[in-house]
Amino acid sequence: MMDDLQLAVERMRAEGADFCDARYQTITTNGIAVVDASVRRISEDRIRGVCLRARKKGSWGYATTVDASKDVILEAAVKAARNALAGNAMGRPIPDTGEAKVELKAKVKLHPSQVPMEEKVQAVLDMDRAQKVDARIVNTNSVLREEVRQNSLVNSHGRQLSWEEVRTTIMVQAVASEAGRTEFFYDIKGGGLGYEVVRETDLEAFGREVGKESLKMLAAEKAPSGLLTCITDPAISGLLAHEVMGHASEADEIVKRRSFLTDMVGKQVGSPLITMVDDGTVPEARGSVPFDDEGTPSSRTVIIKDGVYQGYMQSLETAAEMGVKPTGNGRAQSYDRRVWVRMTNTFFEKGDQNLEEMIADVKFGVLTDRMISGMEDPVGGGFEAKALRGYLIENGRVTKLLRSFTLTGNALEILRTGDAVGDKVELDGGSCGKGIEDWVPVSSGGPHCRFKIVLGGD
Amino acid sequence: MDLERISKKSVHKVLEEGAKEVESYLVRVRSLTAYIDDDRVKNLEEKLDQGISVRVLLNGKMGQSSSTFHTTRDLEECGAKAVALAKLSRPDPYFKRFPGFSQPAGFVDVRQEDAASATTGYLKEKVEEIVRAAGEEVKVPRGLLRVALVERALANSNGATFRELGTMAYAHFTSMTKGPEPGEGCDCYYSSGLSGLDTQAMGDRLRQKARNAQGAEHFKGKMTGSVILPPDELAEMLLASVGYSLDGENALRHRSPWAELVNKEVGNELVNLRDQPWDPRSALSGRYDDEGTPTREKPLVERGVLRTLLYDSYHAQMGKAAATGNYIRRDPSDALNLYRRGGATMPVNLAWKPGTQSVEDMISDVKEGVIVEKLAAPDVNSVTGGFALEVRCAKLIRDGSVVGHVDQCLLVGNFYQALKRVGAVGNDVAVHRNCIIPSVRFDGLDIVGSE
Q: Least CB-CB distance to A36: which of B89, B253, B413?
């Protein structure tokens, strides 16, 4: 395959591409879903295909195919080059990425291929049955998902790379209902891990706790509204890092001057307690990759240091435009999707306070617990996140459980109010879209952080 | 290769492997996209995709496999994998057969020729027209126009078989005023073809929305009033709430608020919802759903009364009901990898019967309220109906007139309760995703300022 990819690169160059690359990718996904203690789905999905990408001045041309025969690849190479030539965007040349020849296997303790499917099915059944702790649990859901990506890339600067990525996730969700009220609770574990994440989890306890917590939700009260002291848990801290500060630090938004963080390098954007990074090298994290989808090694990018804005995440193209080094953030959902600047693992660094100390200082406020969703706003810098639940804090003590609520406000104003940062970082894995498509595996997180944020209870 | 013939052959082969029931679903797609980046044509793409999904039932146990394919061996491997997985599963308590004993084989062609025959060059012209129409006052930092020709074929071991050729067209553009503290606009287009894409009108809307957002003032305080939701924002909220509650699975699993409400009131008399699966304006329209059940027009909510829930073949058997032709794997904005998707039960096209009022008429009836232009994320808690949504831009209405634009506030309420307080339904029907709906006015919702 590498020889055919090399030929495709040569064909695109011959057609007039300034820069080009060819990727071949296989993604195999195994999934087991159990609902109400019955196996609802046991499945394998395998896609494989080739992406040909050519650049002329500032325009890209793409062609993809699932037929990996040489003639079809070469035909697609011609289409990609011609599509690039038809564009009219301006841009600086991609600097030499350097030659390299590398083959890497994923560093996991227990590769999913080494574990019998029977064991996996039983594990998911065990997680599911454990959730049924009470007759008020009306619905249980459990999932195991494993993904193995095999990537090959050749580019016109002489890079020939092959690498593997493995990700495993387990998820449980219980629905509780009583007297016309229905609530749910969930938990997720996983990352850039093999099956060890399942073997090392007490599955019975994992399911049981989610069942118990869903029952507690039936008594949760409406959250207060207004500007409040809010201790964000690692998941909501991560949404603030990822959705607002992260998306707005993707350099394609900077090049277009579409981000509210354009021209902010060197400026104070938050409390001196705030340091934030994007780091694609964190061991076992869901967003970690040895190379991005342009063949650049992943790296650690400091975005905010002690409250001062430091810089942006880069692809080959944006790095060329801004005259800096690429950071390994040129990523694509799969071979048939475009590459552009994307995050990896984005999080606030730890501080020095424990959660009990942070709560003790709060006269009236809220502690969040888990997220439902968040939304990017690179233009306006607005923050919107939905917490699954939270706790009311009164006079330094947690007093009541609160049901789902929304947090909102201007991100920079929120960051400036940060007055306490917890001493333990946790990462929350998920998939990130840009606009409404192009989903890539990422994680986001941080420690507990204390800010002033506007809340709206629903 | 003839997809229908391949799908039948695949079924035959998997039966030989020992499966008792087999369904083979194949898709072939040609997808073209033109991307705008900062007013310039940045990417032109042509993507060819084909894949298969096989579901089998063997000794009461289900297995499923999907794959891209370009050789017979790929097909055989996919079928064999589904059988192997079924052997490792557990007996399913409900599912006994795939649909289709008495259905005729059929070929349906619902494609729109302008989308089917489009080239990347043609898309390039169209996106450039939109940028020009937006004018010099704003720029278009991001935009895309996509068309796809989608051929899907299905065969199962009960004789159900179909092949359908359709098209989709989708555009999504953002705009931004120039200079400091910019305002942002956004506009979308969903359809089965390009004939409804008015590039000048889209450019005009992009310019106006960005200007409105830039001129918005922060809303202060709290107001309980009328809220007019335009079709695009309303569609997302409807799909998250009504779409969820109509799914028979959620009723059977006791997690739908409408589980026990068939033939009971779920809204007021202005709530009239239908499933219109053959509407030529929508990219999801077709004569068969994605497991071969014929689609049909049906009332969902009539004058506020829930008439039916929707079932795929699995949950129809679980609930001892009939499959309703609403198992959907497709997406109105993206045609790639359809065989990979597990499918969801939803209205093929959710249509809200339009009223007679224009949006201007609806505004003139409002004493105090807003007409939403952009929400950060128009999401609703599916189970409870609760929402608290950040308003990125809205027109403020007082005494029947628009008096300005506001932002930085939350729209707060409960969607299931709001359906009982619908004040007016507009006549400005538009397609957004798989919803064909007008603007709707909801009374008694809260707007809470962030300051």
A: B253
